[in-house]
Amino acid sequence: NAGVTQTPKFQVLKTGQSMTLQCAQDMNHEYMSWYRQDPGMGLRLIHYSVGAGITDQGEVPNGYNVSRSTTEDFPLRLLSAAPSQTSVYFCASSYLPRDEQFFGPGTRLTVL
Amino acid sequence: AQKVTQAQTEISVVEKEDVTLDCVYETRDTTYYLFWYKQPPSGELVFLIRRNSFDEQNEISGRYSWNFQKSTSSFNFTITASQVVDSAVYFCALIPNSGGYQKVTFGIGTKLQVIP
User: Fold this and answer.
1) Which residues in chain A are contacts of B102 at CB distance < 8 A?
2) Taking 70 as the threshold, does the pLDDT of residue A109 lie above it?
3) CA B34, CA B53: separation in Å to the nearest integer?
4) Residue B100's pLDDT is what?
5) Are the C-beta atoms of B16 and B30 separated by less than 8 Å?
6) Which residue of A40, A90, A106 is in closest CB contact with B108?
7) Three-state DSSP class for A85?
8) Does the pLDDT at position B92 exceed 90?
9) Which helix H or strand E contains A82, and what residues bound it?
């Protein structure tokens, strides 16, 4: 099992560019989430999904879109990158909504 | 609203010392789950423990132990005989049993440095 995978590991964008962060898991977990990690702020939930076709907003959803067409994949789209979106992004999955989460290795994004 | 407070932002200890990482939480829910995760310098997040609010028994796993006290809303984590490999950022988190899945709240983390 690969667990939770994320690509890319690093990305530099210019303000206004768009991109998609990829996340996949092979554990057949229904629940998947995207977090951003910023210094002094811990992890904050951006969007989450409770199954294929079902997504909802977390604490800091503005500027991000998600979709979940399959159980395995949960991509995060930045529509028009801003410097405030410079962060480390983590994807996570769990079997049940209040189980421990399995995290991907993270994507370090810099927006210039 | 719910909140998780990790008041210690950074702690340094000398190898073999014991160290306790504090976690204090606030929630209106009567049932909830508490978690600890470890983030070593390599950056990945690793699950350590999950505790149901119904279960106030303390837990020990090797050099790690957790003290859950509902009366003080605390879920503290102790590392006994610390080692350099324990150097990491440790996060405490809370998920209430009611409401939506989006209600997970993480603390800001405590960075532990174990000096050889």
Assistant:
1) 45, 48, 56-59
2) yes
3) 7
4) 63
5) no
6) A40
7) helix
8) yes
9) none
Of A55, A3, A97, whose CA–CA distance to A46 is shortest? A55
The 3 state secondary structure assigned to chain B is CCEEECCCCEEEEECCCCEEECCEEECCCCCEEEEEEEECCCCCCEEEEEEECCCCCCEEECCEEEEEEHHHCEEEEEECCCCHHHCEEEEEEEEECCCCHHHCEECCCEEEEEEC
pLDDT at B48 > cutoff 70:
yes
Please indicate if any CB of chain B lies within 8 Å of the CB of A33. Answer: yes
A97 part of contact set with chain B, CB < 8 Å:
yes
Distance CA B7, CA B108 (A): 9
- Residue B76, min C-alpha distance to chain A (Å): 17
- Give me the pLDDT at residue B102, please: 61
Residue type, A90: F
Contact B102 A106 (CB under 8 A): no
In one-letter notation, the amino acid at residue A29 is H
State whether residue A27 sits within 8 Å of chain B by CB. no
pLDDT digits (tens, 9 = 90+) for A7-26: 999 999 999 999 999 999 99
Dig out the tokens for B13 from the structure: 């200890």
CA distance A109 to A62: 16
pLDDT surpasses 90 at B47: yes
Interface test with B, best of A98, A99, A101, A108 (most B CBs within 10 A): A98
